[in-house]
């Protein structure tokens, strides 16, 4: 290597001495040979082995007392299938946060798990059973059906675990849980028992969301609203043909008033529920019905039951809905239920749990509800009571799991009183003890919790946590009954004996199961070992990160239960991400066929592969025939050429490139593939740097004597940009603005390191000049530092490339930040950009041997440009650069191939060879190009001047901003004068 350091006689002896110290003469520390780096970035090859390593090392260890800790819980994916892009977004965000915390020296505890997803799993397994064996769960019985679900669970949990491994997640796999394992089950039962004995859980008869297909109550989050602009045919389970919704029916109800023939016309979209009408209601100030307001007890004849029902006045009634008169059916409508309570009207049930008319309504008994709808309309028409039918815009509530039209039913269920629990949770945010990020969701938090209604926690399913409640009954004459809550039958019996004061008791356990959200609301507690173990050290978590759509259904309920059982919130911060949509902003759904799996993006998939997966889901019973056809059409429209292979790192980087705090996040596969090319750019830069370091025999030891006095302005500039990028990255991570970090890395690697600094070093490194050694060392520092900070986002490629870049000393990069130097180099880069643009417009390339002539507009500009001619030459891809001071425009020779201004500092012209002269006709005439440029400059000046004249700007902007603004105006004016004189 010493032979490579032969320097010219003009080299300063002091510089030579320093350089000898800077460059090591022997390779004390080895790093991987560049020969191990492939010519191109191939994600599949570099990710495979690292995933297994991640899984093997994913174990939480005993945390040392002096080490800061960071605890987080992965929101458990449902065991209904593999991960979707929404899961991938959450897992990536959390993994980036955890990796960053590890880099800061924290002991990280990130707990994985899966959710049993009661309704969703029962539905999908029953579909599979029907598809494979033409059987229902009732055909095989509860015990065998549950065995089928446990088999399904094992397969899906393994798939989910593999998907998380492929995403590179550093989860603590030795802490993995399932929401129905023994530890979780005990905690769920204990929570129910404690809440029951505190009087917070009770058995009540109330209105609930009901799915007739499932024969179960369902949660609000499982209710989808189908928007309709008019008559719409909807497939409903159990019916051979589609049912039409989106119509308004006006029905006449006769008024009984001294025998006069008078009617009130009632508007409804649900004539099938007429059998349960208990009143007709109007707004008290609706002038159309004011005459009845003064009458005492106006009654109407029910058109079908031939019974009298009252006319009531209630200010909840919307006078603009239809005729302004509505029927009150409290057993099947939420608003009607509240109105009936206020007016002390008893509800009349119309439908059975399966959606058939009850036997009480003899004429229509045991018939399906939507068949009865048509029969009722027919009968009303025959009696001339059906006044009119019109198109109507509406929202139809649907069960998202069964695709059945939701029915509201009055059922006896278990309810958790939430009003005080909700206020407690609200207080935590209002006091600042609990932080919601972004804080715009605090309004949503308040809306849900300030008047939190009771939570129906029971479900009529087979799969789930069976409710630990027992009905105890005296087997004597008084037949007294009580409900008790207990872990087992023996405990229940003991509690019942104490309450009933009798020894002749029979007890029966409730067959219902708990709402899935009840068990998931306990996760911060249950996965920490509560109530059997001491949870200090594991509770509370530092952060919960999840989608904003389950802020109430999951996050708020975790806070409510955490507070009631420990007095402390289960986490300190709540970070909410947006919902992943497709590239066009549409929610991903089976009906649109636009669902993309992370695996398809990572490994790529042909159109045929995508279609095969849809057919496989259909075969497994996950998709029905209609969903399958829609999915096939959608995937063909979106991905006619399939999905290109992008790799895990590109997927992660793309997901983090969006503002995760936005309400929706539009994912575009094309953007992901572009980011793969970005990573390949880094790969190529690393190959160049590693090869250069190997060729120059630069070792890790070289950085021990790092001497800043050897650094040129360009070296200092790139280190300043590195310092800025790393600071931007770290601040972005602390504030959860991941998109600022990814944008910073893109700018640094693309625009600054690769396209600028690296290009200026190639010649020196090739010649093995003294500057080349310095520049190669600076490249190593920049590449290593940036890769280390980017590693949380793209762990696989960064880990691989860091093996090949020599390890620099621990260097305080922040001290290199220099805003004035950055401004100076930025001005030079703007000059280079203007030159490249004119070359491109005139189609001048290397073969035309371009010769660049710069004309400095002032002595100051001359002094700024002079030291950087070598870099300008490299960045403008010209064969030579000549610099002159411009004293008058006649110095710019009109025989130049093209000429223009390059900002306020200089003008320039380009000379070319004879080959270009032959192709000159293809080039755009320079006068036109300069005229276009003049027009753009004048518009820019107008924009800056308008803002400068704005009093608001002058008042609010800082003196520094105003100074820069005025300077820009002066520079634009100067450049405009120069280009005008040229033209």
CATH structural architecture of the domain at 666-817:
Orthogonal Bundle
- Helical element count? 32
How does the overall form come out from the CA principal axes? elongated
Mean pLDDT across all amino acids: 88
Distance between the termini: 55 Å
Main sheet makeup: 7 strands, mixed
Q: Decide which structural class fits the backbone.
A: alpha+beta
> Can you say what the CATH homologous superfamily of the domain at 666-817 is?
Isoleucyl-tRNA Synthetase, Domain 1
CATH top level class name of the domain at 666-817: Mainly Alpha
CATH fold label of the domain at 666-817: Isoleucyl-tRNA Synthetase, Domain 1
Task: Summarize the amount of helix as a percent range.
Answer: 40-55%
How many runs of DSSP E, i.e. beta strands? 33
Point out poorly predicted stretches.
Answer: 1-31
Rg:
37 Å
Strand content: 15-25%
Secondary structure layout:
Elements: H1 13-22, H2 43-57, E1 69-73, H3 85-103, E2 107-111, E3 113-114, H4 118-133, H5 137-140, H6 142-166, E4 177-178, H7 182-197, E5 201-211, E6 216-217, E7 223-228, E8 232-234, E9 243-245, E10 247-256, E11 262-268, E12 279-282, H8 290-293, E13 299-301, E14 308-313, E15 325-328, H9 334-342, H10 369-382, E16 386-391, E17 394-399, E18 407-416, H11 419-430, E19 435-437, H12 442-449, E20 455-456, E21 458-459, E22 469-474, E23 481-485, H13 489-500, E24 505-509, E25 513-514, H14 516-521, H15 523-526, E26 541-547, H16 551-566, E27 571-577, E28 579-581, H17 598-603, H18 607-619, H19 625-638, H20 648-656, E29 664-666, H21 669-695, H22 713-734, H23 738-767, H24 770-790, H25 795-802, H26 819-841, E30 851-856, H27 859-865, H28 869-876, E31 880-885, E32 898-901, E33 906-911, H29 914-918, H30 926-949, H31 951-956, H32 959-982
Parallel strand pairs: 1-2, 3-4, 12-14, 19-27, 26-27, 28-29, 30-31
Antiparallel strand pairs: 5-6, 5-18, 7-17, 8-9, 10-11, 10-13, 10-16, 12-15, 13-14, 18-20, 21-25, 22-23, 22-24, 30-33, 32-33
């Amino acid at each position: 290597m010493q032979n490579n350091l032969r320097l010219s006689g003009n080299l300063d002896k002091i510089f030579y001495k320093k350089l000898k110290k800077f460059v090591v003469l022997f390779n004390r520390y080895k790093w991987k040979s560049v020969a191990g780096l492939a010519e191109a970035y191939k994600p599949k090859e570099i990710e495979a082995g690292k995933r297994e390593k991640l899984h093997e090392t994913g174990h939480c260890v005993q945390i040392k007392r002096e080490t800061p800790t960071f605890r987080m819980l992965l929101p458990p994916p449902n065991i209904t299938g593999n991960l979707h892009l929404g899961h991938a977004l959450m897992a990536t965000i959390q993994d980036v946060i955890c990796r960053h915390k590890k880099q800061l020296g924290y002991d990280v505890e990130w707990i994985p798990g899966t959710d049993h997803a009661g309704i969703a799993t029962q539905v999908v397994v029953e579909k599979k059973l029907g598809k494979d064996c033409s059987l229902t769960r009732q055909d095989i019985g509860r015990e065998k059906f549950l065995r089928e679900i446990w088999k399904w669970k094992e397969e899906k949990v393994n798939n989910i675990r593999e998907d998380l491994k492929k995403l590179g997640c550093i989860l603590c796999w030795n802490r993995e849980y399932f929401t129905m394992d023994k530890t979780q089950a005990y905690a769920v039962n204990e929570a129910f028992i404690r809440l029951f004995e505190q009087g917070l859980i009770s058995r009540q008869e109330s209105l609930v969301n009901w799915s007739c297909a499932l024969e179960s109550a369902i949660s609000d989050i499982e209710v989808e609203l189908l928007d309709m602009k008019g008559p719409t045919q909807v497939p409903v389970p159990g019916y051979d043909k589609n049912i039409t919704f989106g119509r308004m029916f006006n029905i006449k109800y006769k008024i009984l008033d001294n025998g006069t023939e008078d009617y009130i016309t009632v508007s409804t979209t649900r004539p099938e529920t007429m059998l349960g009408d208990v009143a007709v209601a109007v707004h008290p100030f609706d002038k159309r019905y004011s005459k009845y307001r003064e009458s005492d007890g106006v009654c109407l004849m029910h058109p079908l039951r031939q019974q009298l029902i009252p006319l009531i006045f209630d200010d909840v009634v919307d006078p603009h809905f239809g005729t302004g008169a509505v029927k009150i059916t409290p057993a099947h409508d939420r608003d009607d239920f509240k109105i009936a309570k206020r007016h002390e009207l008893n509800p009349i049930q119309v439908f059975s749990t399966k959606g058939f008319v009850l036997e009480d309504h003899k004429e229509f008994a045991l018939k399906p509800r939507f068949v009865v709808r048509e029969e009722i309309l027919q009968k009303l028409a025959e009696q001339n009571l059906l006044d009119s039918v019109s198109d109507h815009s509406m929202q139809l509530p649907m069960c998202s799991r069964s695709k059945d039209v939701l029915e509201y039913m009055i059922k006896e269920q278990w309810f958790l009183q939430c009003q005080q629990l909700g206020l407690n949770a609200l207080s935590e945010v209002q006091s600042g003890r609990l932080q919601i990020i972004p804080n715009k969701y605090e309004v949503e938090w308040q809306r849900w919790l300030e008047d939190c209604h009771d939570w129906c926690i029971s479900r009529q399913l087979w799969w789930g946590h069976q409710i630990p409640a027992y009905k105890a009954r005296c087997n004597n004459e008084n037949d007294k009954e009580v409900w008790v809550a207990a872990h087992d039958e023996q405990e229940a019996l003991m509690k019942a004996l104490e309450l009933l004061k009798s020894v002749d008791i029979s007890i029966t356990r409730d067959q219902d199961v708990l709402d899935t959200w009840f068990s998931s609301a306990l996760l911060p507690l249950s996965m920490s070992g509560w109530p059997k173990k001491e949870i200090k050290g594991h509770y509370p978590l530092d952060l919960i990160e999840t989608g904003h759509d389950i802020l109430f259904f999951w996050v708020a309920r975790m806070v409510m239960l955490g507070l009631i059982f420990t007095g402390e919130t289960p986490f300190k911060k709540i970070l909410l991400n947006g919902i992943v949509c497709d590239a066009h902003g549409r929610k991903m759904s089976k009906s649109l066929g636009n669902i993309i799996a992370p695996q398809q993006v990572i490994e790529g998939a042909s159109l045929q592969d995508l279609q095969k997966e849809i057919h496989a889901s259909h075969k497994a019973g996950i998709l029905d025939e209609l969903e399958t056809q829609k999915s096939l059409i959608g995937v063909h429209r979106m991905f006619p050429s399939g999905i290109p292979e992008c790799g895990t790192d590109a997927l992660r980087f793309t997901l983090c490139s969006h503002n995760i705090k936005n309400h929706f996040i539009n994912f575009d596969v094309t953007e992901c593939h572009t980011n793969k090319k970005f990573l390949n750019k880094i790969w190529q830069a690393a190959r160049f740097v590693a090869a250069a370091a190997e060729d120059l025999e630069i070792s890790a030891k070289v950085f021990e004597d790092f001497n800043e006095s050897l650094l040129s302005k360009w070296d200092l500039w790139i280190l300043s940009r590195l310092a800025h990028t790393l600071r931007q990255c770290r601040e972005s991570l602390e504030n959860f603005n991941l998109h600022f970090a990814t944008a910073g890395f893109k700018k640094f690697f693309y625009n600054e390191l690769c396209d600028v600094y690296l290009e200026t070093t190639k010649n020196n490194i090739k010649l093995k000049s003294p500057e080349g050694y310095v520049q190669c060392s600076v490249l190593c520092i920049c590449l290593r530092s940036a890769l280390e900070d980017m590693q949380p986002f793209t762990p696989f490629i960064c880990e691989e490339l860091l093996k090949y870049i020599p390890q620099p000393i621990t260097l305080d990069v922040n001290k290199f930040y220099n805003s004035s130097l950055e401004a100076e180099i930025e001005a030079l880069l703007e000059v280079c950009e203007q030159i490249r643009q004119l070359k491109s417009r005139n189609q001048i390339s290397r073969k035309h041997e371009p010769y660049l002539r710069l004309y400095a507009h002032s002595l100051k500009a001359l002094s700024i440009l002079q030291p950087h001619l070598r870099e300008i030459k490299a960045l403008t891809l010209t064969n030579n650069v000549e610099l002159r001071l411009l004293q008058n425009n006649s110095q710019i020779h009109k025989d130049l191939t093209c000429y223009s201004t390059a900002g306020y500092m200089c003008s320039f012209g380009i000379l070319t060879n004879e080959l270009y002269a032959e192709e000159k006709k293809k080039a755009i005439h320079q006068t036109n190009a300069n005229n276009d440029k003049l027009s753009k400059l004048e518009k820019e000046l107008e924009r800056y001047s308008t803002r400068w004249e704005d009093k608001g700007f002058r008042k609010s902007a800082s003196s520094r901003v105003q100074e820069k603004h005025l300077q820009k105006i002066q520079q634009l004016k100067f450049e405009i004068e120069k280009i005008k004189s040229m033209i």
